[in-house]
Structures are given as structure tokens and as C-alpha cells.
Amino acid sequence: MAVDIAALAADRDLTALWTAVHERLCAGRQPATIARVRVKGLSSVGLATLRTWVDTSARRRRDQSAVVASGDVTVVPLRDVLTALGLSAEDLQQLVETAVGRPVVDVAAARRATSAQRLGLWADVEEVLALLPRLVARMRAAGTDDETSVRQLAGALAQVVSRLPCTPPTSLAKLSHDCAGDPHYFDLDRLPGVRLVAAVAELTGVPEPRRPDLMRAMLAGIGILADRLSATVLLHQVRVRGTGPIDLRLREATTPVALTLLDLTVHPPTFAPQLLTVVENPSVLEAAMTHGSPLAFACTSGQLGSVDHALLQLAVDHGVSLRYAGDLDGPGLQIANVVAETYGARLVAMSADTVEQAGREPSGVPLGELPVWLDQRLSDALRSSGRVVCQEHDAVLRNLFTS
């Protein structure tokens, strides 16, 4: 019997069948190769309709239907259905597209095409970055949904590599501008900057640095000057024994001196042995001047950057004893832990005693999350008020200036 495809597709009781066939076609199966199809959720009316079409009189007498239902799954002899309807395999795609309301898209073929395209992408990247096989392997393992950005990165890195070592040295922003068209493209806090650091480490055969000051030192070694001027660290009453220009500035200063990464790496001062208290906030230096404290201070102004790491390492190299104090909150405690673990600093004004001295309402700032590794007594003391103990609190300042 010949049927109207549009009318057949409109029969809601058969939608489950046509949906199952649609899925098979999208998986790459050819219509003529689908002999049977498993259908979930076929209605009882749809099941009866299919059996009416394909079951012979003999099957009915033996009660052995060609359409086998078990629970929620029905196995349908698709070829028999098409024959009974007078349809060819070529009619099947039009039928299921009409019934489901979506075109058949060969997803398997699309995946194969995408896979082939990706193979072509990484072959091109391997060719462009032939000197960086480890970096290419890392990029490939990370994967991408943006082929254009990968090609742009590979091309920009290849241009950088062709210029190394940079003689005379050039700024990272200038190199980014000339090789990628964007002065911030290789900023070290962006993925291309991370890839650049990995590339230079692989080219020079050194372990990839993790600390920002070590990254900049490695780049400087091949003539790439990452920003050495915008970030500063404050020093107050720090004793020096050298004769360089920065030693002279520190020796003659009567107020805090702001030093850049350039100052600390090109003309590094020679520190005298002393106790240096490193703090998180500039307000502590203001308080130190107000109270006439004779102590030597350095201020990182929050999170540790390259200039801060450079100062701390220089201090350690010169035999300076370090103390560190920061805000008693999650970020402040994290910074303190880094300084203590990396540079051997002793923490001051960051104990449970300081928190208790600060009282039940030390500030109006909610405490937030605390590090899981925090000392239990200190954690309990902070949680009892649920407030941050800031460095500006008198209890903190007393501990800093008298201990």
C-alpha cells in the first residue's frame, strides 16, 4: 500500500519510531542498512498499528508478531515496515525529518571532519613551533574549541622565538605589540603569557619558574623585559651597607622609599644584617612614623608581586631576619603562609592572642572563608567574632611596634 508521507509523519503514535530512526541516521547509518530499530516509549496504539502493517496471517495464528515488545522497548523490523507502506529506503530520510521536525545531520561524519581538521591544526602548530615539542604537546593536551586563537598564539610565539635573544633588550609590551599586534597579548597573567614563559624555559633548558620574579628574571636573561616600573615595594628605615645608587637613596631617606623591580634587579641594594618587618598595608608605615618606631619596615601593599618576591629573596640572600604581618582574614593568612614557607619569615601580630586582644567586634568587615590548614585556636578566635582583624587595629599595631 502506498501512503502519503506527510500524513504518516503526522501520526503522533509513531513519533517514537521515527525519532529512533532519526537518531540512527544522525549517527551515520545509511537508510538501506537499517534492518531493525529499537524504539523506547512506543504507545500501545503505535504498536498495534505496526503489527497490523507487518504481521502476516500465519504470524497472527501463531501469536508470533514480527514487532517484539518487551517492557518499554520495542524492536521494529524497519525494512518490513517500509515494504508494507510501499516506501523505499530513499524515502526514509524525508519521512523522519518531517516527523521529527529536524534535518538529519550526520554527526559521525561531522566528528570525523572535525577530527581531521584538528589533526591538520596540530600538524601546522608542530611545524610552526618545531623547536618547542614539549609546549606543543601541552597545548594539544589542553585542547581547544577555538582554532583561530591557537593559530594566532602559535604564530606569535614563532615570531618571538625568531627574535631571541633580544639584542638590545626589549620590553614585553613592545614584543607583544610587534609579534601579536596587542601590547598586552603576552601579559604574564594571561594564557599567551604563560605559554611564552613555558616556551622560553624549554628553549633555554631551565625548569619552568612559578614565582613571578623568577619568570621575569628568566625572560630578562634573553632580553625580554617584563614590566619593571609600575609596581613598587615600600622600604622604611632599612639599613644598607653598599655604595650603589639605591643604597644611597635608602641611606639618605627620612620617609618611606618606593623601589621598583628595576631598582632591585639592576642596582640592587646591599642590606645590612637586621630585623625587617614586612607588612601588608601602607597604613602601618604611616603609623610607624607617627609613633616614632625605630624598626625597619617593608610594605608589599597586598598580594605578592614580582617586586615583592625580589625584595624578600634579596633580604634572605643578605642575611636579613624577616618578620611578616598581614590582615587576619583569608587572603591575609594565605599571603602570610607563602612568606613564612618560602622565605622563613616569622609571623607577628597574627596569633590568637592578637585576635582576642582586638575584642569581640574588631571591625565591620565580615570574616569570610578561612584556610583549611589554619591553626585551630586562631581559627576559633576569628570565628568567635566573625569579623576581620585589620592591620589598622590598635591591638595589631601594639604588637608590631613592641614585640
Question: Which terms would index this structure?
Answer:
20 helices; 403 residues; three-stranded antiparallel beta sheet; 52% helix; 11 strands; alpha/beta; elongated
List the helices and strands and how they pair.
Elements: H1 5-9, H2 15-26, E1 36-40, H3 44-54, H4 57-62, E2 68-70, E3 73-77, H5 78-85, H6 89-100, H7 107-128, H8 133-142, H9 147-163, E4 170-171, H10 172-180, H11 191-204, H12 212-220, E5 224-225, E6 232-236, H13 245-252, E7 257-260, H14 261-266, E8 275-279, H15 282-291, E9 296-299, H16 306-317, E10 321-325, H17 330-343, E11 346-347, H18 352-357, H19 376-385, H20 394-402
Parallel strand pairs: 4-5, 8-9, 8-10, 10-11
Antiparallel strand pairs: 1-3, 2-3, 6-7, 6-9
Helix pairs in contact: 2-6, 7-9, 9-10, 12-16
Could you tell me the radius of gyration in angstroms? 36 Å
| DSSP strand tally | 11
Q: SS-based structural class?
A: alpha/beta
Helical residue percent?
Answer: 40-55%
Q: State the helix count.
A: 20
What is the averaged pLDDT score? 91
Cα distance spanning the termini: 100 Å
Low-confidence stretches: none
Note the overall shape.
Answer: elongated
Architecture overview:
Helix content is 52%, strand content 10%. The radius of gyration is 36 Å and the shape is elongated. The relative contact order is 0.06. It is an alpha/beta fold and 403 residues long. Helix 2 packs across helix 6. The strands form three sheets. It has a six-stranded mixed beta sheet with strand order 7-6-9-8-10-11, sandwiched between helices. Strands 1-3-2 form a three-stranded antiparallel beta sheet. A two-stranded parallel ribbon has the order 4-5. The model has no long low-confidence stretch (mean pLDDT 91). The longest helix has 22 residues. The chain contains 20 helices and eleven strands.
